[in-house]
Amino acid sequence: QSALTQPPSASGSLGQSVTISCTGTSSDIGGYNYVSWYQQHPGKAPKLMIYEVSKRPSGVPDRFSGSKSGNTASLTVSGLQAEDEADYYCSSYAGSNNLGIFGGGTKLTVL
Amino acid sequence: QVQLVESGGGLVKPGGSLRLSCAASGFTFSGYYMSWIRQAPGKGLEWVSYISSRGNTMYYADSVKGRFTISRDNAKNSLYLQMNSLRAEDTAIYYCARDRGDVPGEYFDYWGQGTLVTVSS
Fold first, then answer.
1. DSSP category for residue B55
2. Chain A residues with CB inside 8 Å of B111's CB?
3. B17 touching A (Cβ < 8 Å)
4. What is the pLDDT of residues B81-95, one digit of tens each?
5. Mind telling me how many Å the CA of B111 is from chain A's nearest CA?
6. Whose CB has fewer CB within 10 Å in chain A, the N or C terminal residue?
7. Which residues does chain A have within 8 Å of residue B50's beta carbon, measured at their own beta carbons?
8. Do the Cβ atoms of B23 and B4 come closer than 8 Å?
9. What is the pLDDT of residues A30-67, one digit of tens each?
10. Other CB atoms closer than 10 Å to residue B31's CB: what's the count?
């Protein structure tokens, strides 16, 4: 299984919105509603931000939202704050007997 | 609160072995799937291995199949990763993570802080 495709970088100004894309295939993103997103600050463990395409775990601000269209998933961060500056990884289930796959990560810079 | 604490990382020569451990607390360990996920220095995440709650189903990434073995001891609330025939490309931070959802790897809701494995002569 190949990694999911994410842009290496994204940026937005404080208070604005930014969307990060994650492109896969019909065997992963397009085939299941099992897309998740993780935030990782430098030197820290990843943190779950979105699961099952658009659900937010308790404690994650509603500024974070997820969606999917066809083989592409998206993470939108609205009302950007300085603490949102981090790496973001998407992940998708890829079928039985396959381990899930991750995207290469997107470094989000808050200007 | 949920805690996952990895240990056992270190420096090992190519071809060597290492056993990672992950101590779980704050939840009923025996009721959850668990996974190991790694991150090479400056790189992205790679799912390494998965084990079912009772330990009777395991999956491995092709890159580690035949060399790594995942196991768990529910009585000790612990997850393990036995790594043999280590290669330079296995150098990474290894995270244990609680695996949630209906299918393996659907999502990981808690992660440990990671343990660094360095394979070098």
1. S
2. 45-47
3. no
4. 999 999 999 999 999
5. 6
6. C
7. 99
8. yes
9. 999 999 999 999 999 999 999 999 999 999 999 999 99
10. 9
